[in-house]
Amino acid sequence: MIDLASAPVVDVHCHPWRNDDLLAVDPAGFEDRVTMTGMCLVSSGLADERSARALALLTGSTPLALAMRRRLAEHLGCEPSREEVARARRRALAADPVAYNARLWESANVVGLVYDEGYPQPTISPERFAADSAATVHRVGRIEPWIAELAQRARSFRELEEGFVARLDGEAADPGLVAFKSVIAYRTGLDVQPEAPSAYCEREFELWRASGFVESREHAKTVRDRLLYRTLEAAARHDRPLHIHCGGGDPAIVLGRARPQDLFPLLARHPDQPVVLVHSGWPWLEEGAYVASVLPQVYLDVSIMVPWASLAIDQKLEVVLGVAPPAKVLHGSDEASEPEVIWLAAQLAREALGRVLATAVERAWLSASEALAIGEGVLAGNARRLHGIE
């Protein structure tokens, strides 16, 4: 076993929250909300009474939820049952949510959160998130809310494009913004086409607007693809990496156009721009790892795989670390429901990395010191270096 118990963790992909919102939801549904199904239902707006009943039946057999129950019970000092953990957690949150969050990070040695401000909406300010989370936070600016806001006011595509570029430059002036992000996979797919001429974009924008800005590959795609090119240019201009959602997600994803292979032509056309494939292309991890192995500025964030692959985490980490350069692999949780997901993911990543890297030492691929350095890099060092954060 490679001992990473004291290694700090920077979570390179999570989402902000307000403590008031944590206290406003039903505490009894905590375990349901930390499952992959539960989180996706919440983030996609599909959660309802019927789905809640179905979800409750699934949670009791879900390894992630059961691991959360046992570990959180130990952390809170209560019995490891669904009901007792929910009650103890509620008491701790209600007493002092900031102190509760701070204890989570201290116990898991989580030293930084690189968060996607695009969910939930309306955007939570970095000041509010830092105060509520009791963590050191770093912004990732998601472009899609900016596009939606500007499109509603724009009288032409030219006006939209110029306003968008100005917004990118303005956001980059904030030293707290460490990256841009796009979820174009949720809108029109990752198969970004070569940049269309301005006149064609003007026509497509008018048709898109006439449809009420319905998300479709028929008209929205041309506009969104071109604006992603502007984002790549701004990222290069301001020396920021670009995070791109790649792979599966909640039910709103354009799953047929969400694979790493769909994005590959765009990445190959911009070989000098650092791009993070958020989720490493999950569940097409081999594709994502291959892309990162042949394009020098493509990085992989292992969120979703950690923590929701549960029993398969070790196997998948072996694939990612064995195919892609480990210096380009970043730990992330994709927490989007409850902060404890960040806490648990940090523990699971440490333990899985320790086992996988120990096996690499046993098989004479790595020395113990090399394995330790790789593990520390995945957990925090690689994210710090890429994003220029301390």
List strands and helices in order, with pairings:
Blueprint: E1 9-14, H1 19-24, H2 30-33, H3 36-43, H4 49-59, H5 63-76, H6 82-95, H7 97-108, E2 110-116, H8 126-133, E3 137-142, H9 143-153, H10 157-172, E4 177-182, H11 184-187, H12 198-210, H13 220-237, E5 242-245, H14 260-269, E6 275-278, H15 285-294, E7 298-301, E8 303-304, H16 305-308, H17 313-323, E9 329-330, H18 340-362, H19 368-387
Parallel strand pairs: 1-2, 2-3, 3-4, 4-5, 5-6, 6-7, 7-9
Question: What's the short story on this structure?
Answer:
The protein has 390 residues and is of the alpha/beta class. Helices cover 56% and strands 11% of the residues. The protein has a single domain (9-387), classed as Metal-dependent hydrolases (TIM Barrel), CATH 3.20.20.140.
Question: How would you describe this protein?
Answer:
By secondary structure, the chain is of the alpha/beta class. It has a single domain, classed as Metal-dependent hydrolases (TIM Barrel). The chain contains 19 helices and nine strands. It has an eight-stranded parallel β-sheet with strand order 1-2-3-4-5-6-7-9. Strand 2, helix 8 and strand 3 form a beta-alpha-beta unit. Helix 9 crosses helix 10. The longest helix is centred in the last third of the chain and has 23 residues. The protein is globular, with a radius of gyration of 21 Å. The two termini are 28 Å apart. 50% of the residues are buried.
